[in-house]
């Protein structure tokens, strides 16, 4: 194929050598073709300007379509081909055209420029269609580069695809830029020096890309086609012989103006033939290689190419080759415009295999995300462009007639459009994401919703089963298994396993143990496809994973970077569906959440253990806190009695002795029977009544059967003590302390301690009651509130209401429980 592609170039060189040998006269370099930017046609015995390019020199000189040529350089011609030959031999000159237009004979001086190599400004339709076609092709190739680029560092096949797409983009993008330069600035020779230099540089870059991508394409196919890979190893380097020879010759001719007697345009036909030969060879290999039908079970998968697309490109390449050598009768007598249209079509379709072959790699990239974002940006930019055009038209229409738009107003309008574009970019992107919602986008939504629920799952078994089910359903996998480790690296290490649609051969914990050390060391994703593989897993382990039908292994790695599990996925259910970078990113994000959830569950378990271990110590500390507090207040009461009523001090000491005996008997018990707590309360009240006398009245009312109800030790006594100290003692004339106990529906018990004292000002606005803890609580009340929350796990068991007229009411709610002497 490489030698066949060089046949036209070889014939060209052979003719040159034969002429030099026979004639023995050195050939002068042929000048570049001249062009007046007009397509002349023969009509009814006249030479008519069928098309005048708007940016060309003839149009600038005043020549318009429909003009009839009378004389050229004061000579009369009778054929459009003769006029074309004269123009082609006159680059750099200015020719005098005598034409008849608008009913008058006019003489126009038209500068003749070089023909724009590989461009065809021969009709308005061809020119505009070429611009849009190359723009669309450049846009598609740019998207392909953005999709394949992130994969190039992971896979040689992706790297080859990136080089292939890059070469094609160089050709397509360069040609598009050259078309735009001619459209905006006109012939490069007549534009600024920088424009001419940029045009020539783009010509060279385009030529390099055009000659390079067919060789890269065939090389890519030869390496991917398993049956011919080894057979062609020795001759494979010959693939790059034609691009080196043809590309080098064309570049030298473009730089020097000619290669020997050959101008740059002389290499158009040999390059077109070489491109057609290589496209035909590459697509023929795709069509004739049966191994490409489906990925094998062992080894890295081979790409799945479109056979219908390959056949179409093959037929087009063969037709193009026949056209170049003049063997295609369909276009044998075609006009210049039609021949140019066919060549442009051939140039554009010659890059079709780039997308065809690269699709096997593109599907592993962020295809959906890149396309959605590109469509959104193109839409916004299009709206911005049309908004600018429409706004400028409105500004000019509203202004004085014949006056262009004010630059300041136009600038303000541009600022407004930029602000709108910034505001519209994200909503438009969301709209496109909804309109072109794909399976992957729906999967992302499902996994995001599940990720929001992960933090509410407080059981490792449930977390594993729901996670693997969510992944399997969202991504449509054939089978999946998730391993999570609780307490990794500790004596309490425990593995949790969950499977989704398990199928033989089963990937078990024993199989995971073979590669777990590698996963811990590496911590990166392993994939069956080289484009996605990030890990350094040895080939032996990779082959074992493939033998189990594994397509993807994603470590469950948290913030500390140490894997706490692994997600193992089989292939997808759909026949040609594969995982891509978007899938991997989604799975890595979900596994990160699972790692954090696993760590959180471990912390919860450790916290529960610490709570269990420290609960008794905390309760003992709270209990130890209340004893000295109570005894301190009791001694203060006795001290007051000794000073005021010495006669009653001895009896009060006896009561205090009884209190000490109760404290010693209670010991370190957390709960005491309510009857025993009430004996302590009555002893305390007896001491206080000795002090206050008639100013303290005690009223008790208790339901029957409450003596054995479990109550936290010293809880009621503390409430009574606060009623006396902070309610009755501060009210002139004393008051009443009321003690009540009743059994509620359901078995709970409510103890009420009320006083007719001064009340609690902080509670006056509350009205309906308040639950602890509150800012005004002292040591006693805060102690009772903390113990109730520790013992019952509730913060609403102690409520207080207060009023300046009626005093304070404290209600102690005791949930039903058997009395335990602890």
Question: Quick gist of this model?
Answer:
With about 800 residues, this protein is α+β, with helices and mostly antiparallel strands.
Description:
The chain contains 24 helices and 19 strands. It is of the alpha+beta class and 822 residues long. Strands 2-3-4-5-6 form a five-stranded antiparallel beta sheet. It has a five-stranded antiparallel beta sheet with strand order 9-8-12-11-10. α5 packs parallel to α12 and α7 packs antiparallel against α9. The radius of gyration is 46 Å and the shape is elongated. The N and C termini lie far apart (96 Å).
Topology:
Elements: H1 2-5, H2 7-23, E1 34-35, E2 38-43, E3 46-52, H3 57-61, E4 68-72, H4 80-88, E5 94-101, E6 104-111, E7 113-114, H5 124-148, H6 156-185, H7 193-224, H8 226-229, H9 241-256, H10 268-288, H11 307-324, H12 336-349, H13 352-362, H14 367-398, H15 407-435, H16 439-454, H17 460-475, E8 480-486, E9 494-500, H18 509-522, E10 526-527, H19 539-547, E11 550-557, E12 563-570, H20 581-644, H21 646-666, E13 671-673, H22 674-692, E14 696-702, E15 710-712, H23 715-728, E16 735-743, E17 749-755, H24 779-792, E18 798-803, E19 807-814
Parallel strand pairs: 14-16
Antiparallel strand pairs: 1-7, 2-3, 3-4, 4-5, 5-6, 8-9, 8-12, 10-11, 11-12, 13-15, 16-17, 17-19, 18-19
Helix pairs in contact: 5-6, 5-12, 5-13, 5-14, 6-7, 6-13, 7-9, 7-10, 10-11, 14-15, 16-17, 16-20, 17-20, 20-21, 20-22, 20-24, 21-22, 22-23
